[in-house]
Specification:
Layout (H helix, E strand, L loop, with lengths): L2 H21 L6 H15 L4 H13 L6 H9 L1 H6 L1 H28 L3
Helix pairs in contact: 1-2, 1-3
Length: 115
């Protein structure tokens, strides 16, 4: 397919999400809104999966590069992280356990309703 069309669609929805988040002064990041808009367009049939599939796979294959900025941020704020290590660790552990519990209960509920 045409790679420019796929990239234009992906970045267009990203820009739409960023604009919406900024214009409406939302706390939801624009990138998340853009993904939701793209998902809606895919489910609604306005965008065909074939148009963006190859470019999305390219981003997924190179996702490790996208974690470089957060890694630099961690190094920049290492002093603050060290001083707040206990609250950070407790919140990470609690969020992990809550996610695990909610996921397990959801699977249990869904399996109970299977024929």
């Amino acid at each position: 397919m045409n790679p420019y069309r796929g990239l234009a669609i992906i970045f267009g929805f990203y820009a739409l999400g960023e604009f919406t988040s900024f214009a409406l002064n939302l706390t939801i990041p624009g990138s998340v809104l853009g993904m939701l808009f793209l998902l809606s367009a895919l489910l609604g049939g306005a965008v065909k999966l074939e148009w963006v599939e190859d470019e999305a796979e390219l981003f997924i294959r190179n996702m490790s590069v996208m974690f470089v900025p957060p890694g630099v941020g961690i190094v920049t704020y290492i002093g603050l992280i060290k001083s707040q290590l206990l609250p950070i660790s407790v919140s990470l552990l609690l969020s992990f356990l809550i996610t695990l519990l909610v996921t397990a209960k959801t699977v249990e509920l869904l399996r109970r309703n299977e024929p």
